[in-house]
Amino acid sequence: MRVRLRGINSVNKTLKDGTRVTYWYAWKGGPRLDGEAGDPEFVASYNRAVASLRAPVEGLLLNVLVKFQQTDEFRRLAERTREDYREIIDKKIEPEFGDLPLAALSESKRECRRVFREWRNRLAIKSKRQADYAWAVLARILAVGLDYGWLDANPCERGGRLYRGSRRDKIWTLDDELAFVEKAPRHLHLPLTLALWTGQRQGDLLRLAWSAYDGTNIALRQSKTGARVLIPVGRPLKAALDSTPKRSPLILVNSDDKPWTPDGFRSSWRKACKNAGIIGVTFSDLRGTSVTRLALAECTEAQIASITGHSLRDVRSILDSHYLHRDPALAEAAIQKLEARTNSPKRAPN
User: What is the mean pLDDT of residues 137-161?
Assistant: First the structure.
């Protein structure tokens, strides 16, 4: 039996590896549909999208949840972020608070805040980070609703965080690097070098095309911030790039010379680290390691920012609170600088 689905919009796209794909959307500007056209998963995702257009009862939080997903603020989010938001809304927020009267947000703001906090605490039993994320999504929805005039109060303002993890000391040591090069498969060596010498995120490196490298610099636009960076290529990285065969439009490929999927790369990287005896650090920590090494090389905040794409304010925050490992070499270098600038005569020993 053939089912006719109305309003579906298709978009053809050429990926960086040259593959032609078709993406299907429930309607123009609507959510992307899952599965292959016509299969049960595809139809189910279409039905969910259509159901989201239902006219919820005015005066309930469900109304705000639906309208938020039709705003420019939501559409401007990255596709992956929109998918994450939808999952949080559908599975965590709507079932719990969809029938909450909007009047309660202002008339009983303190009570609503207490209820929201208890909800986050229940989620935190499984994962504090996910609980914080759900709270952040709800807070953003309420902030947009407040801005649009759909509600009169946002009880989730300044909610703080439950998860206090820090990767300040999660830095790859030289021994880690050498062990990885010795034990890891050869096709994982270039990702290591690229990360250490550019300070870029995993996603941006996996999408990095050969066309971004001109033999002297790497030019890229960061997907998370939109910042454009031009990174001079250091000699070790240049040697690695120039000796790598161009078997794909993308620089980083797997053992089959195919572009990595994010999940495939993470799985291979974790396995390689385990085999090399490297524990406690991840690929993401290479970004902090790069920042630390630039600082140890006496680079200024402006110089570091020009490579990583951060603002100067963010660089200061990163160096102070997030990434800059309190390496003994920093203290030693500081004392050496102080000694070099001290012109007082040497005191004779007593």
Answer: 91
